[in-house]
Amino acid sequence: MSAAAGRYRETMSATSQRPDRNLAMELVRVTESAALASARWVGRGQKESADGAAVEAMRTILQTIAMNGTVVIGEGEKDDAPMLYNGEHVGDGSDPEVDVAVDPIDGTTLTAHGKTNALSVIAVGERGSMLDPGPSYYMDKVAVGPEGVGAIDITASPTQNLRWVARAKRESVRDLTVVILDRPRHADLIDEVRSTGARIRLITDGDVYGGIATAWPDAGVDILFGIGGTPEAVITAAALKSMGGEMQCRFSPQSAEESSAMTAAGFDLDRILTHDDLIEGDNCFFAATGITDGQLLRGVRFDRNGARTQSLVMRSRSGTVRMIDAHHRVSKLQEFSVVDYS
Ligand code: VTB
User: Which atom of ligand 1 is nearest to the CA of 232?
Assistant: First the structure.
C-alpha cells in the first residue's frame, strides 16, 4: 500500500466516515419508471388506470434495488391493495434494512386531468425510523424552506407564523406566498391568510409538491399551511430534512372514526411532530419524478425516440439535492424490461 493510501485509510477509520452508498441514486429509477408508466394516462380522465400503471412499475423496479425494505407507507392494507401494501417486503433482500414510504402518484386527479405538479415519490429511512401512521389519515402541517427554519410554530396563529417567516426572510408579509390545499375545511385559514395581505397558491391536490416547494426557490412559495394526508407528511419530511427546511405537524382526524381509532391505537393527538419525528435520524433518502409539468419538475415528455423525465434526488445526511434529466429509449427498454412503457 502506498503512503498516501495508508493515510487515507487511517483518516477514514479514525472518523468512521467512509463514503457510503447514496440509495437515492438508485431509487430514482423507481420513480422514473412509475412516472413513465403513468404518463401515458395524463389527461385521459382515468385516475385508477394511471395509478395502477404507476404502482405496478414502481413495485417491479423496487425489487431490483439492493435493500431489505418494509413498506411503512404504501397503498393501504393488504386486502385492499394487491401491491405495495403496508408491511410488504420490497427490495432484493440484501442490506441495508430500511423503511419505505411510497406514493406512486401524488396527485392521481392532477394526472387524470393533465394538471400541474403530479409527482411520483419515494422516501426511504433506516429500519424503525419512519412514523407508522396507523389509522391516521390527516395531519395539520406547517412547512418552510431553510430561510424559515426556527420561524414557525404550529400552535401559533397563521398570522403570527407569517410575521415570523417574513421577518426571518427580511421581507414583508405581503411578499410571501402561501400554498394551501383548496378544501372547504380551509375556509377560515384562507380568510385569515388573505387578511394578512399574503398571497395564496391554492392547490387542488399534491401537498407533497407544496411542502417541497417551500424549500425550492424557483417554485415561488414560502410556506405551506393546512390539513393534508399523513402519508404525504412523512414523505415530505424526507425531502425537507435533505433540503434543510422545517415542518411541524399535528394529527388532525377528520371524522369521529378516525379520531377514536387514533386514541384506541395509543396516539397522542396533542403531540407536535417535527420532520425529525416523522423520520428519525439523519440518513434518509428521497426521490421524485415529475409526471405532469410543474413548478418543481418538468413532466414526462414523449418523442419519437422515447421519453424524457426530470427527477429530484436527495439524501439527508449530505444534504445533496440533485436534479436528474434522463432520456429513456423506450424501444430499447421494451427489448428487456418487464415494465410496459409502450
Ligand atoms: C393531500 C394531497 C393528496 O390528499 O394530502 C390530500 O397531497 C388530503 O386529503 O394529493 P383530501 O383529498 O381528502 O383532502 C390528496 O389530495 C390525494 O391523495
Answer: 5
